[in-house]
Structure formats: C-alpha cells, structure tokens
Design goal:
heterodimer, A: 214 residues, alpha/beta, elongated, B: mainly alpha, 7 helices, 64% helix, globular, disordered C terminus
C-alpha cells in the first residue's frame, strides 16, 4: 500500500517553494477544470471577461475563435500559433482573456454548419477592432462576395472605390483577423491562380472546393 | 508585456487552491476563496506592475479572501474547533484521494496556516508572519512542526483511501 503515500513527503520537511511541494498535495484535473469554468462564467457575469476564446476542429485544421462582448474578433489558423495570437490580443485589446467555450457556442455552431455545407454566410456579430482604415474597409466589403463566387484583387480594389490599390487589397486579405467568416479566400489573382492565404494554400483550396467555386 | 489571464490561471491555479484548502479545508469555502481570488486578480490584471511576483501576489489575495470567508462563516455559525465539512461545489467532492487535506485540516491552526502560506504558497517566513501573526522564527517552527506531524500521520498508516471524514 506504499503507492498511495504521496511520494517525497520525507524530503519535504524543510523550506521549499510551492512548486516543489505540489506533488505532495494533489489537486485533480476535473476539479481545476470545474473551477476554471466557474471562473469564466462569473467573470462574464461581472463584465470582466473582455475576450473569451475556444478552439474547434475543422476540415482546415484546428481554429482559434476569440470574441469580445461586441462580437467575434479573431479567427486564427494553427500555423499562426494560438499562443502568439492570444498574446497579441492581450496587447492590442485586453489581457482579460479566458478560455470560455460557452460564449463561443453560437459561433462554433455556425462554423460546423458552414463546414458541413449547410450554411453559406455567417450571422454572428463581428468586432473589427483589430483592423482599421483601408484594410478594414476591404474586410467589411469581403462578405459581399457571395458563397461559391470569387473576385480578383483588382475587382475588390475597384469595388471599394480605389482601383489602383490592388496591392493594398492583398495586404488587407493577408492581415484579415477573421478568416473564413470574412471570406478573403474568395479573392484570387486576375489569372485565376490562388494568390496567398493566411491559412496556407491547401486551406484556401479546401474552402473553395467546399463552396464549389474551384 | 501583460500575458493573457488564462496563462495566470493555468500556471498558478493549483497553488492558490492548495493555499485555500489548507486555510479553509477542502470544500465549498476553499472553492469560493479560489474563485474570489482569481476574480479580484482578473480585475486588477491589466494595471498590475510588470515586475510583480504574480504567484506571491495571488497568495496574498487568497489570504485576504480566505479571511473574508472565515469572518462570514464566524458570523453565521456556532464557533467550533473543527473545520466544517461542507461538500465541494465543483469537481470531485472533497478531491482528497490521499486524505492529505483531512490531515492538514486536523493540524493546530498556526501549523496549518504556516503550511498554507509558506510551504504551499511559497511566501517567505517574514511575510507569512505578517499574515498569520507571530515572528518569522515561530512561523518557521510551526511550518516544520506541521510537516513533521503530517509525515507521522502518513507513516502511521492512517492514510487509507477514502480517508476519515
């Protein structure tokens, strides 16, 4: 029955840091998870949860979804590194960030439907706080390109009233904080080639195939 | 650079819960103290000076929240030597697979508190003394005596699974 004695209690009689003693005083994972969930709920109730996030699995890999009280503020691909994305949100918006899947449930449901081919546009409120100026203008325009259709960077530049700003449209797409929802994947080169994509060209192809546009 | 608060909970959540459990016993009071600690920390997080020792800061906040809860409990309940056995509100009720929290609860109060803030919370003897009273030297002794006593409990083989409640 020696296995149920927390190991190392003999070595722990003198000074030490909390971390060193951790193993002697076990806290089980479900308890921490339940406390975390309750914290997220209480923080939201008290208006202190500035950014809630969760991850979802999709045909284009895991996606990070983050929302402010205004709306969905960030969608990120795994290749962008979720920790880096969250740290960037802490800098640019607020470090009051917690994993809080429930606040993202309505968004996750729409993503599921989109990837199942049952939804063509997203209805959730969006927060464009991470972009400004011409980039935001372009990003707000992109949802007007219909599901299953594509436009060239040049056509987008014309549509937003600045036909010479083709490169700036490319930058606006490359810095889109809300990929998939703001469909920068529907913007191609004039010759029909893919151009670039935040999620990688394979992801862009997958989305266009899903929409029957490729 | 201020990190996402999620990382603070991930890094320090367990330590703070150990402190809360040692001070208040494993159960709903400790869970409440933990929640109030992290809510207070979340509120202050954006303005917290960059060079703060985050864990020590959290342990001090947890100490204040635990005292608040102890006061509320004292107003509500008949004074008793023993910590009440309110069931935990979340997770595995009690979460005391090894009976270690029951053993901590059974220690004399000063030993228990010295273990909470110094041994589990990592605060220096002097700072622990500021919270629980006495001198750094008596804190050192109380912590050492408490750990010795816990060790004796384990070696006496009283730590069967589903420890006495």
């Amino acid at each position: 029955m020696t296995d149920i004695t927390p190991s190392g209690i003999d070595q722990a009689i003198d000074d030490g840091t909390g971390a060193e003693q951790a193993a002697l005083f076990p806290i089980d994972t479900p308890t921490m998870a339940a406390l975390h969930d309750r914290l997220a709920a209480l923080a939201a109730d008290r208006g202190m949860l500035d950014i809630a996030y969760r991850t979802i699995d999709t045909p284009v890999g895991p996606l990070l979804l983050a929302a402010t009280e205004t709306g969905l503020v960030r969608v990120a691909y795994e290749r962008q590194d979720f920790d880096t994305v969250l740290e960037s949100l802490a800098q640019k918006i607020s470090p009051r960030i917690l994993a809080a899947p429930r606040r993202l449930d309505p968004v996750a449901v729409e993503f599921d439907a989109y990837f199942a081919g049952r939804r063509q546009a997203f209805d959730v409120p969006l927060d464009y706080a991470l972009s400004s100026g011409f980039r935001q203008l372009v990003q707000r325009y992109l949802p007007h390109i219909e599901y299953g259709h594509t436009q060239s960077y040049k056509e987008v530049a014309e549509s937003v009233g600045n036909p010479k700003a083709v490169r700036a449209v490319g930058t606006a797409c490359a810095t889109n904080p809300l990929p998939v929802v703001v469909p920068c994947h529907r913007v191609l080169r004039t010759d029909g080639s893919l151009g670039g994509y935040i999620g990688g060209l394979a992801a862009k192809t997958t989305l266009l195939n899903l929409e029957g546009a490729a | 650079m201020k990190l996402p608060f999620e990382q603070v909970v991930g890094r320090h959540g367990e330590t703070v819960l150990r402190v809360c459990r040692a001070v208040l016993g494993p159960g709903a009071d400790a869970d409440d103290a933990w929640s109030e600690t992290f809510l207070a920390a979340l509120k202050s997080w954006p303005e917290l000076p960059e060079d703060t020792n985050v864990e020590a800061w959290l342990v001090r906040v947890a100490g204040r929240k635990a005292i608040d809860i102890t006061r509320v409990r004292a107003r509500q309940a008949i004074p008793t030597e023993e910590l009440p056995e309110r069931p935990a509100t979340v997770g595995n009720p009690g979460g005391d697979e090894y009976g270690v929290w029951a053993a901590v609860s059974a220690l004399p109060p000063r030993q228990r508190l010295a273990i909470a803030y110094h041994y589990l919370g990592g605060l220096p003897h002097a700072e622990t003394a500021e919270i629980i009273g006495g001198s750094p030297a008596t804190v050192r002794r109380a912590a050492a005596d408490g750990i010795k006593s816990l060790r004796k409990t384990y070696h006496a083989g009283e730590h069967t699974k589903g420890a006495p409640r």
